[in-house]
Design a protein that fits this description.
It contains 5 helices and 27 strands. It has about 400 residues and is α+β, with helices and mostly antiparallel strands.
């Protein structure tokens, strides 16, 4: 496993007086953290020749300035171990932050009781040892550890004991979603927020739906997303059903980038929607070029020499001024008649190359071809939005995606 090169911990947290200024994670950039961890992988590979590894968060710290540094390392590791004490069944294990029990002074009986609990519940149990028999301030007695090992040996036919990387690979294969007959995979299991990352103040699972809700007590100062942690294909089709409150405002971001220092934020293309259905189906680029195609528009975005830092001069009334409307997909009254209010609708997103099409209940609402080579994107994150404004609720179900060739 890789536990980083210098074991940087967040020195701004209570009880962290041991953290030196040179290796204070709170003073790192995400880029520095990623580069140091990758350098450690190179060093370990030179020692043992292995290419598959797991990562362990130093001190259990997972963010720098509110941003996860592991996002940039996900493809480098099979899994990452955290420090939260819990046992999970295979389908609920979060391979980006695997739970574990840190041992410090426990007796053999206490450790064996944890093993018995895992055996009874058929769950994953990870032990974290720093020192055994002395040599480290976080320690377990040698005799106690030996009794635990003997118990495991006596029950080796009932318990699978293996290195973290082997267990993680086993879980990874069994968590891979299965394709349906049309080639789609379900990316939300209807039971947990596994593989999704967001602020649980606003996101939960309810009645087999992914629900985002803003209450009078939790009003937002900026838009917030729950972000899928899986690998996005470059070209894809998404089909998902949604139901939104009358004053709700939401959207599906794709090919989007995270924003350093701004938790749960995305910048990029958005399949827009709202309760009154005035925006539903349009293509809005969050935190960037704004509206690329309103309801009923087929647009072409021409090449422009406008950097992402100089966009505002080319935006008016929340519309990207350089866009060219090359065709009408229908009048707004007819299009909105296809969208049900206070009921379930299906959103279909087809993204192939530089063309993006948004459908509601089978009706094409917007069609964008992006020839803006400076500002367009061909990859990025997928996320669901709750919006600033009045209290709102959005529910998603039957979330499916397939890669397009």
């Amino acid at each position: 496993g890789n536990h980083s090169l210098f074991h940087p911990c967040d020195g701004s947290l209570p009880g962290r007086s041991f953290v030196t200024a040179d290796h204070d994670l709170s003073k790192y950039t995400v880029t520095r953290a990623v580069e140091e961890v990758r350098a450690t992988n190179t060093l370990l590979n030179a020692i043992d020749g292995k290419t598959k590894r797991t990562f362990a968060y130093p001190c259990g710290d997972v963010t720098i300035g509110g941003s996860s540094f592991y996002d940039g390392l996900r493809k480098d590791f099979v899994a990452a171990r955290g420090v939260s004490p819990a046992m999970d069944v295979i389908g609920s294990v979060n391979l980006d932050n695997v739970n574990c029990y840190a041992m410090n002074g426990q007796t053999a009986e206490q450790m064996i009781d944890l093993v018995k609990q895992a055996m009874k519940t058929h769950t994953l149990l990870v032990f974290l040892f720093h020192g055994v028999g002395g040599g480290h301030p976080i320690n377990v007695g040698l005799a106690e550890h030996s009794r635990l090992i003997h118990f495991l040996k006596d029950h080796e036919r009932e318990i699978w004991i293996a290195p973290m990387v082997d267990v993680a690979e086993y879980i990874q294969k069994r968590q891979e979603p299965q394709k349906d007959k049309d080639g789609f995979v379900r990316i939300f299991d209807g039971k947990t927020l596994n593989n999704w990352e967001g602020d649980t103040t606003y996101w939960r699972v309810e009645d087999s739906c992914l629900v985002g809700e803003v209450t009078p007590q939790t009003l937002l100062k900026r838009n917030s997303f729950i972000i899928w942690q899986g690998t996005m294909p470059q070209d894809f089709e998404i089909r998902v059903e949604y139901k939104i409150s009358a004053k709700g405002n939401s959207g599906i971001n794709y090919r989007s980038e995270k924003i350093d220092g701004v938790p749960n934020a995305l910048r990029g293309y958005q399949a827009d929607l709202n309760g009154p259905n005035t925006y539903t189906g349009s293509n809005y680029e969050e935190r960037k070029r704004t509206t690329l195609a309103s309801q009923g528009e087929k647009t072409l975005l021409p090449p422009v020499q406008v950097s992402p830092d100089s966009l505002q001069a080319h935006i008016a009334n929340n519309q990207w001024l350089p866009k060219q409307v090359i065709a009408s997909l229908g009048d707004t009254a007819t299009l909105r008649a296809a969208i049900k209010k206070d009921d379930w609708n299906e959103y279909r997103i087809v993204v192939r190359g530089n063309r993006m099409q948004h459908y509601i209940n089978g009706v094409l609402m917007s069609d964008v071809t992006d020839n803006d080579t400076v500002n367009r994107k061909f990859s990025g994150f997928l996320g669901m939005q709750v919006h600033v404004g009045p209290p709102m609720k959005i529910a998603w179900r039957n979330f499916r995606m397939k890669a397009l060739q």
